[in-house]
Design goal:
This protein is α+β, with helices and mostly antiparallel strands and 211 residues long. The protein contains 7 helices and 7 strands. The chain has a single domain, classed as Spore Coat Polysaccharide Biosynthesis Protein SpsA, Chain A (Alpha-Beta Complex). The strands form 3 sheets. Strands 2-7-3 form a 3-stranded mixed sheet. Strands 1-6 form a two-stranded antiparallel sheet. The termini are far apart.
Length: 211
């Protein structure tokens, strides 16, 4: 069924690229047209049964919060691992060989403060997204959400997951089936691990442990 902007009670602007753009570039382009107090990043495979925005905006009450995200459920209603600690090469290898199973955080009814949240659904105060300069467009697909949350961390902002807000994710897991998507995933992973953002984040985490 074609997308019909006239079916909605509010104005919608559709942006079409002459050539395919990456996740970061597409959302930065959308932000250039945004005019509200908040900017929402939401994948097309997200489904919303009830309005998550009152709960999400409630979690943005503090000026220290840089981004909020809802609790993400799979199609079968199982909680997805969408709130995590920053990845490291050791942790990636651990997962690749069948270790490091389970989530990084114990989810409950209270907001949690993870290192990063998945880019399938993120809500930013408009001024903070602008302050960051948006997503890093050198990431074509994957890890742009990790990089952005790491930059928020370096600027002293919190990342918050608000369990009162819930959405459903019809995940495609393309990198599990497609060599092309897997290559993008690996390239983005290496770009992040070789970046100054990753080095600064690791250094700050180590300093906190020593203090």
């Amino acid at each position: 069924m074609p997308f019909d902007v006239h079916r909605f009670s509010f104005p919608i602007k559709v942006l079409r690229n002459l050539n395919p753009q990456g996740f970061a570039a597409n959302h930065n382009q959308a932000f250039a047209y945004a005019a509200g107090r908040f900017f929402c990043v939401m994948n097309p495979d997200i489904r919303i049964a009830s309005n998550p925005f009152p709960g999400l905006i409630g979690c943005l009450h503090s000026a220290s919060v840089g981004v909020v995200a809802p609790l993400v459920l799979s199609e079968s209603g199982i909680m997805e691992d969408s709130a995590r600690r920053f990845p490291t090469p050791i942790k990636i290898l651990c997962k690749a060989f069948g270790g490091c199973k389970g989530g990084d955080y114990a989810l409950s009814n209270e907001p949690i403060f993870p290192d990063w949240v998945g880019g399938m659904f993120m809500l930013f105060p408009e001024d903070i997204f602008a302050k960051l300069g948006g997503f890093d467009e050198r990431f074509f697909l994957y890890y742009e959400d990790v990089d952005l949350c790491a930059r928020l961390y370096l600027l002293g902002y919190d990342v918050v997951l608000c369990p009162d807000a819930k959405v459903t994710h019809h995940a495609h897991r393309s990198s599990h089936r497609s060599v092309r998507y897997l290559s993008w995933h690996l390239a983005s992973m290496m770009r992040f691990f070789c970046s100054g953002v990753f080095r600064q984040t690791c250094w700050r985490k180590l300093k906190k442990r020593w203090v």
